[in-house]
Amino acid sequence: MKTVEIKTRFGTNKVIQKVIDDLWKAGGGTVKIGAGVFVMYDSLHLRPKVNIKGERNGTVLKKSDCVSSELSADLGYGHYDISVRKPHLFKVGMGVYIKDDQGIGFYGTVATITWKDKDRIGISRMLNHDYARSRNAVVSTVFPVISGYFVDDIIIEDLLIDGNSKKNLFIDGCRGGGIFLLQCHRLKLNNIVVKNYNGDGITFQQCTSPEISGCETIGNSASGIHPGSGSVGAIIKNCNILKNGKDGVFYCLRVSHSLLESCRIAENGNDGISIGARDTDHVIRKNAIVNNNRYGIYFREADRVMGGHRNLIFANEICENCQKSGLSEVFIENINEDIWFKANKISGSRTKYGIITGDHCKRICVEKSNLFSGFDRNVISQNETELKFRKVPDKIYSGPGFVNKKKTRHLSIYQR
Hints:
This protein is mainly beta. It contains two helices and 40 strands.
């Protein structure tokens, strides 16, 4: 496969995007980006069969300062244009984010400006919602620094993403992040630093088997890494997930069969790891989960159908969390089942308990191989009959090794 080098030390996203697009049209290959600072006025859009390699800590993709405007007309779902009160702020080629008080999350729209006509502006993707002036609709030039939609089997590595958070509005992880992936499969992110983004560091939605290795997410305003929306089989290993504003790793909705291994998850603004909403069958092992503001690991409240069941917590260091709130290093809310703790070191001078479990939890197994220190009680349970101090089952079918077509059929990706 062909390799094309970009040697200029300064530029914008357009310099890199043109090389990526040309290589894609020619059949694929690798774009090598030398050391330098590239100001991003739109996402770097990933393309099939095109790998991207920079120089770690030398190749910087810096988010541009954002501008924003209220709407000058209400907007309709499915349309490819917007109307803004301050059209002079926007140029063709800029990335934009459209939302209102109701149109947030997946109802927000991220697109690229394609044309201008007075206050009307064309966009590259259709609107995902109706947006109304009465609901405080706004258009801003915020977007993922790297964006992948429907791209498979490529490698992105050795980049530094500077989110320039102080000069950008917030965008949530359903549509934005320092790196944002939607319906991508088997992508590899290696040795990438994402810092100071006003949102999540790395977020992937409806993806299968992404691999995030040797990356750092530092000082982003939301979560460090956000696996979401039915993603299956993720591998996250050897990463530093530090000082992010919300959770270190936030498992969102129906994420399953991941491996989180050998990461340092520390000093985040809320929980080290947050699990809930049908987030099942994960292996979380050999991580240092320390000094987070609330729980080291938190299993969110749910009903029986939506619980974070069948998760193995193995050989982690979980200590000195609850820096600002919380009574235990691990907190399992009222309805979660089949959570297995094995060979963890759990300690804390700020917390009364090692593990707290809710009153409707079932089959919470805390093996005697776990080492506790510094607590009034190591484990406190509202449902003592369902707390098991016995050996973790020998056969656990969690983690990416047990992904198959049945596990991914909710994403309808058989053809890929």
